[in-house]
Each structure stands twice: as structure tokens, then as C-alpha cells.
Structures
1.
Amino acid sequence: MDSAAAPAVRMSGINKRFGAVAANAEVTLQIAPATVHGIVGENGAGKSTLMSVLYGFYAADSGHIEVFGKPVTIRSADDAIALGIGMVHQHFMLVDTLSALDNVMLGAEPHWLLGRSQRAVRVKLKALMQATGLQLELDQPVAELAVGDQQRLEILKALYRGAKILILDEPTAVLTPQETEQLFCVLDSLRQQGCTIVLITHKLKEVMRLCDHVTVMRAGRVVQELPIGQASIEALAEAMVGRKVNIGQVQRKTGATGLVRLQARGLVLRDAMNVLRLTGVNLSLHAGEIVGVAGVSGNGQSELLDVLSGLLQPGAGQLQLGEQTFDATAWLDPRTARELGLAHVPEDRHARALVMNFVAWESAVLGYDGLPQYANWGWLNHQHMRRTTAQYMERFDVRPRDPELLSSKFSGGNQQKLVLARELGQAPTVLLVGQPTRGVDIGAIEFIYAQLRAMRDAGCAVLLVSSELDEILALSDRVMVMNQGRVTGELSIAECTEAGLGRLMVGEAS
Amino acid sequence: MKSNYPLPRWADLVLLPVVCLCLALLAAAVVVLLVGQDPVRVIGVLIQGAFGTPRGLSYTLYYATTFIFTGLAVAVAFHAGLFNIGGEGQAIMGGLGTGLAALYGSALLPAWLMLPLMLVSGALFGLAWAVVPAYLQAYRGSHIVITTIMFNFIASSLLVYVLVNHLRPAGVGSVESVPFAESAKLPAMHEALAAIGVPWPSSPLNVSLFLALLACVGVYLFLWRSRGGYHLRAVGSSPGAAEYAGIKSKHQVMIAMAVSGALAGLVGMNEIAGVSGKLLLEFVSGAGFTGIAVALMGRNHPVGIVLASVLFGALFQGGAEVAFEVPGFSRDMVVMLQGFIVLFSGAMAYVFAPMLAWCLAMGRRLLLKPAGSLPSGAPHG
């Protein structure tokens, strides 16, 4: 135990450029062994690039890496694994159809006969599970494992390969509060057993809960590095963004809400495999309120948005939108929905909200190209489209302010602002918003929250679907919780507690 | 190294195709050397043959006309995310439509109506032949690549059947129809030019070249200026976003293939109405497939397609000259050269992009360094 002598990882003077962008500039990082070290920063701050350099995905342009005191060159993930570095990616690298055991074994088979390999791996893995407390059903196909279990499997996979340094990239993005707590207990015990953990995250609360040390990155540089005892959430947020941020501020309208703008009854939806995705969902949206839909991803929230916006046709149910009513036999389509004043900021920005290889001014009228100001006898009015886009960019602070730039060339936050500008542009009466800040940096989050609140205050009925509980709590006036296609609870914001919502999210009745 | 240096737009549009073309010629030159010929002479004869005389130029443009139609057909489908391999069959059917209108219409209809009727008939026949695979793709889930390939075979068999069993006059050995009436023939370019007092050698080049250029303008306006084209491109680029925008992708598949087939069908105006003056076999002879290479090389843009068509037209015409003039240089060698061009400019178009981008970045750095006005790094942006 020469922990004082040799840090587990020491990266110094790391530089990595992508074209004109310096993703990492003179980054120096030192991680003490048997600690949890948090790396926080906005999207594009360079934390993923830095970890990719450590894990051998990218070669740094310059800089030195030492692992446990020894200078090393890491050219590939294999090199990193050989040095005892393991990584758990945000999107799991698992083969869905193989069992948990086979996934651990894949690429590290001890014997050329499969049966003998499986027996040997099973023995070793059982011992490992015993020691770490990472319990798991080994013979189930990965597809049937819960998300939390899949993540435990990823960690086991890394530990099985001899990882002493574990990099976790946004590990809690897909977990319920309870699962998050379980994960943290496991990480705590791993730390006690001498494992070094690097936690990449943007959730500052988790940093404060778990880490011993935290490094803040901004624009490719390390701007702060301090032991957790000296850190506070406010100070870290400020260091990340470079100025004071104020997103959590609660400024709720206390007055009564207005008329019912959207009402849905008994929505039932089956997917292509005939699995029930929505089981008799009822909801109503009033003018001047934000209703948050909380839940672990994949419990019917996405389908609810798609049904309400007309993208999916439910098997049963009624919908009242303004004066119009629809039923399952004659459901509304996206075009009708827009005409009735329903705007939709979809969850998937890349596949739905923008046509990535359209220029910004083409994407900025998507869905609204039939409006008389854009189209005349079937011909598009390019001038007006360009002008409107320039106005949108000005009003929503889209950077760079270039309507001729391809939609794909904007950062996530700026793409989202462009989408918001388009959807809010026609003064909708109902606004459906899915994951409004996914992949969006803190500065833009603040702006997007302000826009959503402004819409609410202007009398718009807003439905907010988000997998970030903090986001739901920061914005909503009323919260619905979904689990397996059912609404398991509906609470006013005053009644919400994180633990209570967490119980509803896993399906326990209130 | 790949993504580190972005390729500037002008280099992507102009420099890269030129570099690819040169590499193709270089590769072909090596093969020409291997068979004991002088590559410089061969290329000289080729260029001279294709562009050196008014007659050669006319042939080049005549070939190019057909390629513009088939290239546009491929491009329109491509913008909707569809790979239309059926240009060949649609062109055959277009020729049949043009021919039938000429054969059966000229006795009944006034002369001024004949050419428009033949044009519409050719376009409609091509359209009909493309719409069937489109329907099968959109509403029945059959893949359009497979169905359009199959439809090529059906079209060529159908043409043989109609010609042999119904259109061939009794007692004639060759498989072709009777010649069209004068009113059903498109004016040749030398006739048109003679009318305005410009002497021009006789060649198959006819006024359908202007029709092809008009089609280019039309395709541009449709794809980039009209709401319909906007919807079509949205479906092709991002089906999810199109659905979200309320655009029905099935309708767009039908529209794209209808336009595509109609464009391919116009080949009949050049080959049947413009040149042969009667319906015969083999008038498409692979132009539908060359259209794929043309669209690929022309980046699915009308301007690029015109340039690529002229290039391929020059290869056909110049290649024929070379085969005639250079002893020991067979037509197969010309096909090989075409193969190299398709390989380098089409299939491998982006293989050299990172290298080229790197060279440009280095060159610029070298040029900018001595100026010394830049702060550390960031030589471009």
C-alpha cells in the first residue's frame, strides 16, 4: 500500500485536437488509488475525450500517462485492459441474445472448448460476485435482465478482466433513484476493497454523495480540482459553466389553472410484438400548467407522447384536443395535431426533430412548411424561410447564427433551441416535450427551462416527459408517474418526494 | 487522422472528382502500357475523338442526352432514399410508349400533336413501369432493388414479344417496326441548326438534348424549390423526421418512383423519336445502368449529372474512335476504362477524401506559417 507514493492514474499535459477544436488542452489529472474520483463538465467539455485517451480509443496528440507509477502507452482498449483499466460505457456493450455468463466470457475464453470455458468462468465469477456483492442471475439472456442488472453485468465484466481502475460514464442516466443508491453501495464497497473508480457525470448531487475528489472541466481544460470536502453543488455548477447558473429556482404559479386543453381517456397501445405499451392511460392537461411524466425510460412515456402527437395510433381510447374529439378508429395525425395548435418537441432530436442533412432553414420549418408564409402554390418561399430562421436563431440564441449551416453541425443544445424555436414559433396551445435537455449543456438547460416556464405562464398546457427526476421536480406543477404502461400515481408538486416518486416508478402503488 | 481535417466544400465538389478521374486514367494507363500500347496516344485519340471535331462532339452529346435522362431518374429516386436499379426497364418501356404513340397516332392525329403525345406517352409508360415496384415497396414490403431488377427483365422480354408478334411487318427478317411518319420524328440537331443558318455535320444528336437540359432544370426546381421535393428529400434523409412532420412516406415513395420512371421513359424521345425513327430492340443497351454511375458521380445533382453524362458520353464516343484508330485496342479496353472511372469516381469516391483533406491542410499551413500573423494553431475555420 504505497498509496501516497504512486497515484493510480496520472495524466499530464494531454492535448487532443479535432480539426480546429481543442477537445483536451494541457489536461493534467491525478487519481489517487482506492478513491472515487468525479469528473464533471458540460457536454463537449472534454471529459469523454480524456477518458477515451485513457482507454485507448484515441491517441493523444501529446502528453504522458502513468498507471500505478509506471509510464505507459495505451494504443487500444486491449492495452488499457491489460493495465487493469476497465470502462463501463453509457450505452452498454452487451450482446442481448447471449446469457450474462457468455457476455462476461466473450473475448476472454480461457479454453477453446465452450463448455470447459463456461465452467471455469462460472467458478471465478461466483467468487467475484461473492466478494463484491454484485449479485446477478448468470444464465438469463441479457435482453431479459433489468437495466440495473445489465449495468452490474458490465461492472462484473470489467472486474473479471482484472480491472483495478474502473471508469463509469454517466452510470445513473438509466437508473431509478433506488437503483442508483444500490449502485453507489456497490461502488462504495469496491472502493473499500481497493478499487479506483472514475465517475464521469453531470449530476452534481451524485458527485457530492460518492466522490472523494472532483475535477471540473470546461472547454477542454481542467478548471478546478478539489477534495469533496471543499466542494459545493453551487460552486461546482458555477465552475462548469463559468458563470452563475440558476436552473432549480422554483417560481411556480400558485393560482388556479385554466381550461382543459387536452384530455385523453383509456389509451391502450400494443407494439408490433403485441406487447402492451399503454394500459388505459388517462390524462388531462389544463391551460397554464406543466404536467411532468416521471418514470424509468421505457415504461410507456415515449409511446404516450407519440400517441398524443398523432405519430402512433392507439388500439383504444379517446382524445379531446381543443374543440375536436378523436377516437381510436379515426385518430389524429401529426399534421392535424399541428393545425389544432399542438406542438411537439420530440425525445429523439436526431431521428425525429431535425433532418440532419438539411440546412438549418430547411429544418426550421419542418412540419410547418404548409403554412401560407412558407409555401405558395406548392413552391417554397426560401427568402421567408431564411428570414424566419434568422429570427428564431436571434430570439433563442442559437449559435452559430448561420441559417445555411447543416442541422447536424450544431451542438446538441443549439439543435434543441432551434427545435424549440420552431415549435413555440406558432404560439401553440398544447406543448408536448420529451427529454428537453438530453445531451444539452447546462447553459442551454437554463434557457430551455425559462422558455418552458414562459410558455406555461402564457397559458400553454405543457406535458413534460423526462427521465431526469430533477428536471420533473424543477418544472412541473403536477407529476404523473408511469410504470409498465400504467399511470401509477398522480401528485401535486407539493406532495412529491424523491423517494415517493421512486416507489411509484418501480410500480408500487402510492 | 480521418476526421481531423474537414474537406472544404469546393474541394469536395470540384477537386475530389477531378483527382478521382485522374487516378482512374492513371490506372487505365497502366493497363494500356501492359498490353503494349502508348497511353498518351490512346488518351489523345480519345479526347480528340470525343471533343476534337463537331461530329465527334455531336456523338458525345447524343450519348450524354440519354445518360442525363437515366442519371436524373436514379438521382430523384435516390433523394427519396430509394435505389432505382430499374432505369433500364423503365427506359425500354418509355421507348415502347413513344413508339406505340408514333405508330398508332400519326394516322389519326394532327402533326403538331404528335411529338408532345409521344413524349407524354413515353413518360407515362416509364412511370407505369416504375410505379408497380414502388407500390410493392410502399404497401407490400418488397424491396425495390429486387423488384426493379426483375422488372428490367420483364420489360426487355415484353419489348421482344410486342415487336416480334405484333409490330414486325409480315415478311420482314429484322425485328423492328415500320418506320414512323415524318410528323413523329424529332428534328436532328444539324437540321435544327441549318434552319437558323449554322452548318453542322450530320449526327444522331437531336433536339432532345434540350429536352434533357429542361428536365435538369425541372428536377432542380422540383427537388429544391417545391414543397413536394422538400417532402421527398425529408423522407429520403430522415424517415423518422418526415413522419414527425406529418409527411406520408408511402406517398413519397410513389411520387419519387413515378418521377424517376417518367424521366427514364424519356430516353425513348432521344433514341426512338430522335435517331432510329422506328421501334427496335436494344435501343437502351445498358444506359439505364450507366445512369447509376452517372448519378453517383454527379452527386445526384442536375449540374453534376450533366457533367458526368458528358464524361460518359465522351468515353463512349472517344472509346469507339480509339478502337477504330489504334490497332490492337479493342472495345473491351474502353469498357475497362469505364470500369475504372466508375470504380474510382463512384465506388471509391471518398477513399481519397481524408488524404486530400490532409494535403490541403498541410499545404495551407505551409502557406500561412511564413505570414506569421496567426496565433498558435487554428490554421483553418
2.
Amino acid sequence: MLDVYLNQIVSGVLTGLVYGLSALGLSVIFGVCRIINFAHGEMMVVGMYLALMLFRWAGLDPLLSIPIVGGVLFAAGYALQGGLINRLIGVPEHMQFIMLAALAIVIVSSCLMIFGPDLQNAPLSYAYDSYQIGPILVDKVKIMAGGAALVVAALLAAFFRWTYLGKAIRACGDNLTGAVVIGLNVKRLYALAFGIGAGCIGVAGCILLLLVDVQPYLATDYTLLAFVIVIVGGLGSLAGALIAGVLIGVSEAVAGLLVQPSLKSVFSFALLILVLLLRPQGLFGRQA
Amino acid sequence: MPLDRISRRAVLAGTSAAAITAAMPIGRAVAALPPLKVGVIHPTSGFMALIGQICNRGAAIAPALLEEWGYPKLDIRYGDTETNPDISRAAGNRLIDNGAQILVGAFDSGQTTTLAQAAEQRGIPLMIDIAGAPQITEQGYKFVFRNFPRAPDIVGGALTVHKQIFAVSGKVPDKCVCLYRNDTYGNAIKKALDAMIPKFNMPYKVVEFIAYDPQARDLSVEVAKAKSTGAEFVLAVSVANDAILLTREMVKQRWLPWAIAAAGPGWYDQSYRKALGKLGNYPISTVPWQDPTKARTKEVLATLAKKFPGQAVDSSTMYTFEALLIVADAYKRAGSAAPQALAEALRHTELPAKDTITIGNPKGIFFDAKGQVNGIPMAGIQNLDGEPKVVLPIGSAEAKLVFPQPAWQGRA
């Protein structure tokens, strides 16, 4: 039975890395723009469909579509921020929620009209391959997905830590007044941050297509999951989002084995409640 | 015509006509019957829209084909339940208001229950084509009839097919694991299994029942847990999407049970077979099904192939057609569209098995006092070469059972 648990822990870690990457986008957007993106899951589904279309039209593996899909979502996020989201900065939160929820509905309905309601996937040649290392048996697809998520997260972290633009964006998030005073173009940086967040979500969509089939109504589940991860990890913390994603992935896998698989989501939400009670700023978030 | 003008030729012609008519009274009576107004009600919109439309294919071909077979004309009018039990009742009432003399429907048990209430209240017969909830024919209704197995019969039939599988193959598994959807349907089947497995004295032991979230996108944990039981036989209660996820995980986790026996739909669906290709071969579904060896079934299948080219045939289409066959037969015997006459004729239905479409009671179609056809066996349908084929019962088989299934490797 130990090998069964080991397998599930490894699988949970790899899946959790993808969850974490998807939540990173949400964390970036909130951390800088202080906007809670309620259309998060919907943007990820758009990323999945774009990757699917590139696979069907050009035979492009979803992992190789990452630069294209990430770029398209970045551009869309940048434009969205300038055209719509900018007007939501500073407004009451319920107005942010309504506007972004409406955007989410528009996205889902558009996907439904264009792609239909059926589940669709990219039938990859290596979809059923797995590697065996001792007692551990892991999907090739999960290894590639987890690996890609880790690489993208690392690149994102490096961008925010070591590039001028990344530091400028962080400055806006940390101290808006200070950023304005030192002459940073806050509006442009906000748009860049939203674009980067959206691009990150799109990349997560490409990677997620390796693991699950896409349909328009998938979005709600992943929006909720992303919120759980970001709250557990700490709003605005990149490392927190990634680690929380892994925690959630592993807890679901192990809980499913220990108790009943149909109750595995219960554990993610139980973890959320525990964190909110004991450490409301999240595991790696800063106290208000 | 004055008597002195009547010729011998006229007398001869008249006498011949009378003799011919006397020899074939039913033919003359059928020709004289006006078309029977039949209200066919299924969910043709909402989330069950696809299956409702599949059922209606049976109704689309029924009038012409039944007339060819010597039955009276049917005038089909369609109703839509919108996948909603309340709207099902309203749709039934609307059809009756617009002249429907008999109703056929409605696939889903909830929607059929309310339709049955409406039919009974209005005194219009309802011929249930598909619906498994046992309580529908336990209400003492006088106008409701069903030619479909009830849920306990479906489960009992499934267990009987399992025994047939083991008898034919000579291989008997010790352990079985059940993977089922954690929803109303899955839990109902699980409850029936709990009750019936001990009664049927099955040779295997169900070592674990594993419920999974019907909305789950990833069933790796569930499959890992099932694999860890060491069970050789998998009993699945799922729909096509879950079936696809489960199969993929079994391949990835290199777990090859002897068979996946599905108690219900999903594993023979076209979407499952299309998604998995050769990896979708060999699951065995235990379901009510058409009998491919019967002459009338072959005619129906040929007609469907012409009218709906490229569309896989679903047993739902066949059950709707058979319901209309029963209705036409009753109308022919009743000679009247009056509700009481139709209901009485239905009650006295005795359709020989050779004249039916589905794998039904070997003695044919006849209703008990509650309006239920009993003794409907389940068929064992196995996906072979990408198509669902009847492998059990042997008498209706169109292909040989493959049990245990061959390895995953080399199939794709």
C-alpha cells in the first residue's frame, strides 16, 4: 500500500504545480493592481482552447504553444486592463465582482457558441506513456506538465526579482504613492502586470490541456480552485501560490485514498478554513 | 342499379370481392382505420437533448415501416419535456388538448413519472418506452404501460450476465471493485447492488465500492484506489465522460482488469469509442438492447441507416420504435381510438417474440396487471473493433465474447 501512497503523492505534487501556476496569474494581478480577477478560470479556458486550435491546425504540441498562447493572452490582458479594468481600480469591490463576473459569462458563452459544449482534448502520441522508477509509476504527461509549470514559475520569479520592469511592477504593488512620486508610469505598469497575469493564466491553460479535456463550463471549477490556492498561499505571494498549489494537489490525492475519492475536495476547503482561522493572511502572505 | 340490368359479370365481380374481403377482414379494417394520433414526448432540449433526439429517431421511421408491416397508420406529434418533470406534464397535457389519443415517452424516470400522472388524470393511455424507476407501475394506474425493465431488473439482469460471462469463458474472478458516480443514478444502482449481490450468490466478492465526484476532471486517485484492491473484475456505474477518464487512467497506471462490466450506459457510447479508439475495445455493458438476429430488427436497422446515415444506433431508438409497434398492434386489435378501448387492447397485448425488436421476454410482449412487461433480460454488449456487439445471451449474439481482455499495449 505504501507504493500506492507514494505514487499519489508524486502525482499530487505534479498536478499541484500546474494548479499553482494557474493561481500565480491571479496572485500577480491582485498583488499589483489590487483587482480580484473573477474571470480567471474563463481566461484559462480560453488559453486551453487556443492551445487546442494550434494543435489541430498546426499540429503544435500544447507545450510548444506556450509562447504563442501566453503572448496572445498577455496582449488581451494588457488591452483589457487599459480599456476596462483601469476603471475598476479604487471602486467598491462589489462593482469589481459584477464587472468581472459579467466578463466571465461573456467569455463562457462565446466559447460555448464557438466550440460547443462537448469535452475536447488534444490526443497526444505520448498521452498514455508512463515511467516506472522502482515502485513509483508516473505519467509522462504529468511530469512534463509539472516540469513546465516549475520552469514558467521560475522565469516569472526571476523577472520580478532581477529585471527593472519586474521591480517597477513590484514597487507599484508595494507602495503606489511612492511609485508615483518616483515617476513610474503606474497606468502602464498596471497594464503590464495584468497582461503578465493573463499571460501566466494562458500558459497554465496550455499545460492544463495536457491533463484534462476542455469544455466551456470547466472555468468555474478552476476559478474556485485558484482562489483557494491564493488564499491559502497568501494573496500577492508567488512562492505561496506555488506551494499552496502543491499542498492542495497532494492533500486531494492522499485524502482520496485515505477516505473516499468523492470527498477529496472537502480536504482542500477544510485546509482553506484552517488557514483562514489560524493565519488569515495565508501561509506566505504579509500581515495587514 | 335495376335488377334486370345486373350482368353476370357484375355478380361474379361482386361475389369475388365479398369472398376476398371475408377472407381478409383485418386488412380491410386496418385500411379503414383513421391514423392514430400519437404524442411522442422526450427531452429534446436541455442537458438530455441529445438522448431525446436519439429516441425520436425511432418515432421518425415508425409510421412508414409499421404500415409496411400491415399495421394502421400513426400520426406522430412531438412534445418536448425540456429535461424538466413539470414541463413534461405540461407537454403531455398540451398534446392531449391538441388531439393526441395515446402518448409515448419519456426516457427519464422523473419526467416519465409526471407524464404518467397527467396521462392517468386525463384517461389517455401512456406507453412508456424507456424509464427504469420501479414506482411508476406501482401506483395502480389503469392507463400506464411499460415495456422496459425496472431498476432492480436492470441490476439483477446485469448480475445474470456476469454469471453468463464466467460460464462461457470458464474464468471466474475472486474480487470485484465497483466504481460509481456519486449522484442519484449511481447511488440507486449501488443500493440495488448491495441488496442483490448476496441474493444472486455471486462468485466474486465486491471488495470495495468507490464513489467518485460526477464533476471530477481527474479520476487518477479513484483508479489508484481500485487498482490497490487487487480486484480482477471492475463493475462501473458511469456515463461516457467518466468512462473515458477511467479508461485513460487504467492505461496510464498500467492496470488491466479482466473486464470492465458497466451496469448502464456510457461505455458503448459513440463518444467513448471515438475518444479512445482501440483502447475503448472490450468493456462489457449490461443493458436492455435490440436483438440483432430478429428479422424486424434488421429491417429497422436498415431503415435507420438510410434515414440517418453515419449515426450509430442507440438502443433508445429501438425501444421507442418498439413502443410504437406495441401501440400500433393495440390499435389494430382495438379497431378504435377511444382511450378505454386502446387501454384494454394494450392490457391484452400478446406480441410474439419473433415480431418484436428488442431482446425481451422469450415468450413475447405481454403486460401484467400493473401494466409492466416482465422477464426482460439484459444483454451483454461488448465493444469489438470499435462497435458495440451483442455477445450475450448466446442466442442473440452477433460476436464472440472476449474475456479476459487483452493487454493495453499494442492496441493503440
